[in-house]
Design a protein that fits this description.
The structure holds two protein chains of two kinds. By secondary structure, chain A is of the alpha+beta class. Chain A contains five helices and five strands. Chain A has a five-stranded mixed β-sheet with strand order 2-1-5-3-4, sandwiched between helices. In chain A, helix 2 crosses helix 5. The longest helix of chain A is centred in the C-terminal third of the chain and has 21 residues. By secondary structure, chain B is an alpha+beta fold. Chain B folds into three domains: 47 residues, 2-Layer Sandwich (Uridine Diphospho-n-acetylenolpyruvylglucosamine Reductase, domain 2); 116 residues, Uridine Diphospho-n-acetylenolpyruvylglucosamine Reductase, domain 3 (2-Layer Sandwich); 106 residues, CO dehydrogenase flavoprotein, C-terminal domain (Enolase-like, domain 1). Chain B has twelve helices and 14 strands. In chain B, strand 12 and strand 13 form a beta hairpin. In chain B, helix 11 packs across helix 12. Chain B is globular. The chains are: A alpha+beta, B alpha+beta. At the A-B interface, strand 4 of A face helix 2 and helix 6 of B.
Amino acid sequence: MKKMQLTLTVNGEAHDVLAEPRELLIHVLRERLGLTGPHIGCETSHCGACTIDMNGRSVKSCTVFAAQADGATITTIEGLGAPGALHPLQEAFREHHGLQCGFCTPGMITRAYRLLQENPSPTEAEVRMGMAGNLCRCTGYQNIVKAILAAATEMNTLKEAAE
Amino acid sequence: MIPAAFEYHRPPDLAAAIAALRDYGDDARVVAGGHSLIPMMKLRMAEIPHLIDLQAITALKGISIDGSTVRIGAMTTQAELIAHDGLASLAPILRETALQIADPQVRYVGTIGGNVANGDPGNDMPALMQCLDAGFILAGPDGERTVSAREFYQSAYVTLREDGEILTAVSFEATGGGHAYEKQKRKIGDYATAAAAVLMVKDKTACSRASVAMTNLSDVPVWSKAAGDALAGTSCGPADIDAAVAAMLADIAPTADNRGPVEFKRHVAGVILRRAIARAWSRA
């Protein structure tokens, strides 16, 4: 099958990618662009480990063909923070023990990022509802919710300080 | 999980999409959000040589409200339905239902058109559309037609949509009154073990009109005219609700699967309908 030329803007950088239409976005991100932050967990759109931000929406990249993403603007966990300059969500997950094995964490944080963009001061119930598409098999969610609530407070404080 | 190879098409408008369906015939299938179709392709339960992506067709997007008439473009996502305040005030049952579909990530991409056109008995919007007495607008090579949601579903995945047609919008008249979409599911993201859509209009102390439809309790969504009739003209006392539940149970035909045996599903259907009636009536 003929490959397609795709243009993706990922973490602020434009990429031209040659891919078969049937290639899943998660495979293009991991194998062609070397962005191994988003993980492949269940591969059936249940677990949320592959969550990325695409055109301002949280998307499970195992259930999107790369061809559908042609022209899209994408943020992965690699685009949110860096070693030495962690995103407040990353800091909060570390501070509040929001992870054990870490496998679900990139998807959790990328999803939480969009949740807090849409709702900067969520209640605990809103966090739980908003994170319902991400599964964790280690921590039982309590500390993940705590971390997100703490990050929301921190992000609001930083925003006020900047204004 | 890698699907079979296919050619990808992104037509710029509806005419081009209909032309692509005509050109490729049985080898073509349209994709909206893809969260039903793509998993089937990955499992190779569906092989589609030509995938026609509707995302660029702006005419398929958006919600318009004219008086009590609501029209929702097929490519409108569940998240957009939830976020639309005008729709929430005129027909709040849409938001209540959409919030119970899958999870946030799926709701960002899953569309109302895909949900109703696919013909999966597990989908929630078909029963809701039957409850609302909605019409489905279908566009094909010979123009446009409207099919009632109450007639559209023939059996699992078999609908009155012709192969060359695309479902472009749903349309309904908002009736006001009380509403509820009540859903029992095993976990987040699961299809319903049983779900009920109920609309009730109150006239002083009596129920003047009621509409009841059920999800995932037959190979098609079930609009139970008899259940609605059992409530209409009553004050919704215990005997009236018993009659409505009995009427609904006579209309469903669940089958045993990993959500339980038939008797369990019939039990859950009764519980769920009672809750839905109570909530709808309290809001009427």
